[in-house]
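Sequence only, no structure available. Ideas?
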Amino acid sequence: MSTPQPPNTNPSRVIPLTCSGHTRPVVHLQFSPITTDGTYYLISACKDCNPMLRDGPTGDWIGTFIGHKGAVWSAKLSKDASKAVTASADFTAKLWDTYTGDVLHSFTHGHIVRSADISEDSTRIVSGGQEKKLRVFDLNKPEEPAIEVEAHEATIKSVIWDGERNVVLTAGDDKEIRAWDVRGFNQINSYKTEQPITSMELSLDGKYITCTAGKTVYFIDASTYQLYKSIDTQYDVSSVSLHRDHKRFVAGGSNDLWVRIYDFESGKELEVYKGHHGPIHTVSYSPDGEIYATGSEDGTIRLWQTTPGKSYGLWQSKATKDEKENEVNGID
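Reply:
I predicted one. Tokens follow.
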């Protein structure tokens, strides 16, 4: 089957920033919320075993977390970005101090860990993976899991701690999203997809569970677990991220090189860009909605402007650069 051709765009105006440093495919990205100092951060998971922390608006490298012995499948930041939790093929999930880069604790599992998350108050860790079990660790007593549940009939691909509703969400290769009450970890709801689930995230405002399975993008109401809408594409979708204004979303494909922007209401494809040299495994919008990040099989992260040409981060217009040069040179 031929690769779908992109619509007419103005590629000269779309110049992504390339963030190098990883040596293997980048498989998961997450932006932090905007922190008290007014900035935000980006964390990446990669098959090279070394998750990385970056400044969000610029993509500048801050540090690398050293300690995993296998591919890292997911990496997430705490609400205040002071801690990170990672899930790895080395049969561990790890909790990190983002200021020092030190491992605060390593949580041993019986098989590959595909996803982990941290509670909003940073007191508990949840994990899932090849064992099909949902585990919760209390960070005050981290040696053994406080809770262990047989959660799915196949590999768990994603876990999310939804603090607003006091539930944990899990998604698996058994084509199902399940919601678990954190008080007793009983299953309280579920949603079934047509194909195995490849990714799951919460929208920035927590309103929608965004999910990809096969060639379909799903937007599920996070309060009712009922489908709000689904959009069929012509390619295998690997990841999706909804813009904070709910007017557009970005999607990546596991079999082609295009970054695609869609209208949320109509599902119409608005923009298509090529910048990677391998399939796109993960996409994510920044918390202010100004940029989105893409991670690829080619080992790079690229940052793209939501509004190309706008002065933001390292994208400075000629007028802005001239003003700064004039300031330096003392010219009014």
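The chain is about 5% helix and 50% strand.
Hope that gets you unstuck.
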